[in-house]
Amino acid sequence: MAADFDRGIMKFKGADSRPMVAISAVLVLGFIGLLIWWGLQTAYAFS
């Protein structure tokens, strides 16, 4: 029996598949890393 996670903001078939979860995780973590890098670059730009 498969879990029904096709609800909320991800309302399409296959939203809870492993490849889609992996792609989403990479995008979210990459964006967080980019924000941290940008923040550090900005904070120390005038040192």
UniProtKB/TrEMBL annotation:
Membrane-spanning segments: 21-40
Keyword field: Membrane, Transmembrane, Transmembrane helix
Tagged with keyword Transmembrane: yes
Protein name according to UniProt: RNA polymerase subunit sigma
Species this protein is from: Pseudocalidococcus azoricus BACA0444
Phylogenetic placement of the source organism: Bacteria, Bacillati, Cyanobacteriota, Cyanophyceae, Acaryochloridales
